């Protein structure tokens, strides 16, 4: 299993085109982020373990089909931009639980400071954890989030980091601290500017999702 998975899909490319456009209004930005999030969710959940369960078809034929135990899946959006991807995951994992981690970025040092953590201590209740955040830039917010989650006993190999855009710098920093973490993204952009924003990127995802 590759540590980094990039979605290769024309619909994802079209979503990114709209998300990158500075003329895209808030409503359209939210819509395209959710659409892209659905593709990310489908790819990120490709390796979820299922149990086979017998069902009887209308032709009175018994067949064993996969049963998804989505109630044992935990979604962790990094506030606030991560909320833009949660509904996409819940569309295909309706019984998944949702916890929140809030991380603020110091705009001078670019360091991440956590201000909220609702991840349950009961790590044994969950088989997989999906951390969602549209942007993987410096990696500081992702690393802080992963530190908080793994400190509660969640195995890193059960955690997947899902983002719309990433850069190699952020990916490398995450894997230096957490080499077991799988990363799923729609695209890897060339790098960061002097303000640690992804370029060409799509601006501040949190601001564009929430207008302010």
TrEMBL record:
Residues 7-209 form the Phosphoribosyltransferase domain. It holds the Pfam family UPRTase. SUPFAM superfamilies: PRTase-like. One of its GO terms (biological process) is uracil salvage. CDD domains: PRTases_typeI. Keywords: Allosteric enzyme, Glycosyltransferase, GTP-binding, Nucleotide-binding, Transferase. Coiled coil: none annotated. The keyword Nucleotide-binding applies. One of its GO terms (molecular function) is uracil phosphoribosyltransferase activity. It is an enzyme of class 2 (transferase). Pathway: Pyrimidine metabolism; UMP biosynthesis via salvage pathway; UMP from uracil: step 1/1. It comes from the Bacteria. Its EC number is 2.4.2.9. The keyword Thylakoid does not apply. Its cofactor is Mg(2+). Belongs to the UPRTase family. PANTHER family: ADENINE PHOSPHORIBOSYLTRANSFERASE (PTHR32315), URACIL PHOSPHORIBOSYLTRANSFERASE, CHLOROPLASTIC (PTHR32315:SF4). This is Uracil phosphoribosyltransferase. It comes from Sporotomaculum syntrophicum. The gene is upp.
């Amino acid at each position: 299993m590759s540590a980094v998975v990039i979605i290769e899909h024309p619909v994802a490319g079209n979503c990114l085109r709209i998300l990158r456009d500075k003329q895209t209004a808030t409503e359209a930005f939210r819509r395209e982020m959710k659409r892209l999030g659905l593709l990310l969710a489908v790819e990120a959940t490709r390796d979820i373990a299922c149990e086979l369960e017998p069902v009887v078809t209308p032709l009175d034929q018994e067949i064993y089909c996969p049963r998804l135990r989505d109630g044992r899946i935990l979604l962790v959006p990094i506030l606030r931009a991560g909320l833009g991807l949660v509904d996409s995951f819940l569309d295909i994992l309706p019984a998944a639980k949702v916890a929140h981690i809030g991380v603020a970025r110091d705009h001078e040092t670019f360091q991440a400071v956590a201000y909220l953590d609702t991840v349950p201590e009961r790590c044994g209740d969950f088989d997989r954890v999906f951390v969602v955040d549209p942007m993987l830039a410096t990696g500081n917010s992702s690393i802080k989030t992963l530190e908080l989650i793994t400190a509660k006993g969640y195995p890193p190999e059960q955690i997947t980091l899902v983002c719309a855009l990433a850069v190699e710098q952020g990916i490398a920093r995450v894997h230096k601290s957490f080499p077991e973490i799988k990363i799923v993204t729609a695209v890897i952009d060339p790098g960061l500017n002097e303000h640690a924003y992804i370029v060409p990127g799509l601006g501040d995802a949190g601001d564009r999702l929430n207008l302010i």
